[in-house]
């Protein structure tokens, strides 16, 4: 697996503001000090058909995370997994990509028995409750799946 990352800021659109409000509901008392800035981190991973890959959603466990997938050539982002603080849940549409799991006490997405259809853009939306207020980070990982 090959990973390369960069960091930057992204201005929030009304959609992200609504998403943020929706994510914040489970965290009572969460204060967002600066919702105008969102950090984003981009990376690239390569894996083989039938193999496995681990996609990271940061080095520390977020309070809330949502994994999504966008197939190349489409704008449709499909939810794969999420954790609103009560343990990770996988969505049923994950089977066409491979066998997915979110290991205990992590926000990483592990895909085993990779299918060719697993190639695409994976997005982890992570919300961290810090002493300075809420911090939101989007992790974008482009996954290329190659023949064995």
Could you please describe the fold and organization of this structure?
Residues 1-29 form the signal peptide. InterPro entries: Ig-like_dom, Ig-like_dom_sf, Ig-like_fold, Ig_sub, Ig_V-set. It comes from Lates japonicus (Japanese lates). This is Ig-like domain-containing protein. This protein has one helix and ten strands; from the N terminus they run E-H-E-E-E-E-E-E-E-E-E. Strands 1-2-10-9-4-5-6 form a seven-stranded mixed beta sheet, with helices on one face. 7% of the residues lie in helices and 47% in strands. Mean pLDDT is 80; it is low at 1-30. It has one domain (6-146): Immunoglobulin-like, CATH 2.60.40. The longest helix has 11 residues, at 14-24. It has one helix spanning 14-24; strands at residues 6-11, 37-48, 53-55, 64-70, 77-83, 89-90, 99-101, 109-112, 120-130, 133-146. With 148 residues, the chain is mostly beta strands.
Top keywords for this entry?
single chain, 10 strands, Immunoglobulin-like, 1 helix, 148 residues, three-stranded antiparallel beta sheet, mainly beta, signal, Ig-like domain-containing protein, Ig-like_dom, globular, seven-stranded mixed beta sheet
């Amino acid at each position: 697996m090959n990973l390369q990352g960069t960091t930057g800021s992204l201005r929030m659109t009304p959609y992200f503001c609504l998403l943020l409000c929706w994510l914040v509901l489970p965290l009572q008392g969460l204060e967002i000090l600066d919702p105008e800035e969102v950090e984003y981190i981009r990376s690239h991973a390569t894996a083989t058909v039938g193999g496995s890959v681990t996609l990271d959603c940061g080095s520390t466990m977020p309070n809330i995370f949502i994994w999504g997938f966008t197939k190349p050539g489409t704008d449709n982002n499909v939810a794969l997994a999420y954790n609103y603080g009560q343990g990770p849940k996988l969505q049923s549409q994950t089977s066409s990509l491979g066998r997915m799991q979110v290991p205990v006490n992590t926000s990483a997405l592990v895909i085993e028995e990779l299918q060719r259809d697993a190639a695409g853009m994976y997005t982890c939306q992570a919300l961290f409750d810090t002493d300075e207020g809420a911090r939101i980070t989007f992790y974008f990982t482009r996954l290329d799946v190659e023949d064995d």
